[in-house]
Amino acid sequence: MKPNVLEVSGLTKHFPIGGGLFGRKKGVVQAVSDVSFSVAGGETLAIVGESGCGKSTTGRAVLRLQDPSAGSVKLDGEEITTLPANRLQALRRNMQMVFQDPFGSLNPRMTVRETLMEPLLLHDVAHGDRAREVTSRLLETVGLAAHHADRYPHEFSGGQRQRICIARAIATRPRLIVCDEPVSALDVSVQAQIVNLLQDLQREYGMAYVFISHDLSVVRHIADRVAVMYLGRIVEEAPADQLFADPRHPYTRALIEAAPRPVPGLRAATEPPEGEAPSALDPGPGCAFAPRCPLATDLCRTTRPEARPMGAAARVACHHADQRAEMVFPPAPPQSQALAARLAVMANARANGAP
Fold first, then answer.
1. Would you state the CATH architecture of domain 40-65+178-355?
2. Is the predicted pLDDT of residue 265 greater than 90, yes or no?
């Protein structure tokens, strides 16, 4: 069992809302509340959930791109939430991020070589001719040619730009990379290539990934463990195969059932949950999913469930997690047709030698 690279405990990020009389605070958006998880070296933890659930905010708070409101984040045992700026900058060599928009995260006025050399110079990894040599090797590592180094971002396709972003992220050989929807803006075939590239790099360098996504087929392909978020909280965490085969939280089951079917006219086995999620300004005292849950009782509406172990490797925040047989949702298949179709595309790309 490899030691944990990342340990997150009670992570909370709230955003105050101003604009009241005399600039008084009108309320607080509870974007992330009491989130805890860990990631071992060479492991991929996927964080999934619908838009607005707090996935990206969690990733940014882990790297202190946004300062957490509360909680603990440890990288290789070192607490980073209280580090001074100079020490935090030095630690950033070991934690990097790949953003959703590859064009927006690249400086259009910098060549690819300048972009890749920047972290090398900043963290004193390489200088001069040695830095130029490293940038050429980085491009070849991510499936591009060394002569691409003198081009600008606008001269590349979306998939190529994301490869450049990945090359920049691995330039300092970090221990942890947070991937925030890294393939959602790409075509399906290109998604497969990028996911396969990330897996190859992980095997070679042993990096830990926090992979943020809403695409369950991609998550099924890349993740070792999956954490499901709903309204700023993790409601279920389990090994990927176990979670897809036997989801214990009603929201997790609803997510899997909502995956699009590739066959025209084929509908999901059940209708999606009705109702609206509570406001992040006032989620209420009970379970946030209670207004939409087929198992909700008065207990769910008045008392927030704490995460509890379900077996050796899973935990679920649900009062009725052991009553899954009584859910309105039918038992989830090990692999839906939608997931099977997307996984087949990825497997074909790998078989045809796509990097």
1. 3-Layer(aba) Sandwich (3.40)
2. no
